[in-house]
């Protein structure tokens, strides 16, 4: 059975009265491979997450656990990957079946995905309120 939350270990890098910024290291699946140094495809990126400030004695440099509900993680995957893929395929196949050239169908399908991401960008504040991270001491 899977855990109800997704967690990462991070380090506090900034503290404001309302928010705490935590930096986590997101590693690719192959970064833990023993041959990662030879391959060159292994990467790790640092991501900054803003968390609402909670009661506690937080200090810069302290390691903490950053949590997000697993259901919110799945929703993010749907919004970022699954729905855009469905839009791309639906528009591409629909326009191709309607007799439009492959080049035009492909360009319009890519534009449709761009419009989808633009709509997500316009609703980013609403989405930001739905995705609430929280931290606990390590």
Please characterize this protein's 3D structure.
The protein has 138 residues and is an alpha+beta fold. It has one domain (5-137). It contains four helices and five strands; from the N terminus they run ββαββαααβ. The chain has a five-stranded antiparallel sheet with strand order 3-2-1-4-5. β1 (5-15) and β2 (19-27) form a beta hairpin. α2 (70-97) packs antiparallel against α3. The radius of gyration is 20 Å and the shape is elongated. The two termini are 23 Å apart.
N- to C-terminal separation? 23 Å
**Largest beta sheet, briefly?**
5 strands, antiparallel
Q: Label the overall shape.
A: elongated
Assign the structural class, choosing from mainly alpha, mainly beta, alpha/beta, alpha+beta, or little secondary structure: alpha+beta
Low-confidence stretches: none
Order of strands across the biggest sheet? 3-2-1-4-5
Helix count? Answer: 4
Indicate the mean pLDDT. Answer: 81
Record field, number of beta strands? 5
Q: Over the alpha carbons, how many angstroms does the gyration radius reach?
A: 20 Å
Helical content stands at 40-55%
How many domains? Answer: 1
What share of the residues does DSSP label as strand, in percent?
A: 25-35%
So what's the oligomer here? single chain
H/E series: EEHEEHHHE
Topology:
Elements: E1 5-15, E2 19-27, H1 36-39, E3 44-52, E4 63-69, H2 70-97, H3 102-122, H4 124-130, E5 134-137
Antiparallel strand pairs: 1-2, 1-4, 2-3, 4-5
Helix pairs in contact: 2-3
């Amino acid at each position: 059975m899977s855990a109800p939350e997704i967690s990462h270990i991070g380090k506090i890098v900034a503290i404001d009265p309302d928010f705490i910024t935590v930096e986590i290291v997101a590693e690719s699946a192959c970064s833990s491979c023993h041959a990662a140094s030879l391959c060159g495809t292994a990467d790790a990126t640092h991501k900054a997450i803003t968390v609402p400030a909670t009661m506690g004695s937080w200090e810069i440099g302290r390691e903490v656990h950053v949590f997000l509900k697993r259901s919110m993680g799945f929703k993010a995957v749907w919004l970022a990957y699954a729905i855009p893929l469905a839009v791309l395929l639906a528009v591409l196949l629909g326009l191709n079946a309607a007799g439009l050239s492959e080049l035009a169908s492909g360009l319009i399908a890519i534009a449709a995905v761009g419009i989808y991401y633009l709509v997500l960008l316009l609703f980013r504040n609403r989405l930001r309120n739905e995705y609430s991270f929280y931290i606990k001491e390590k």
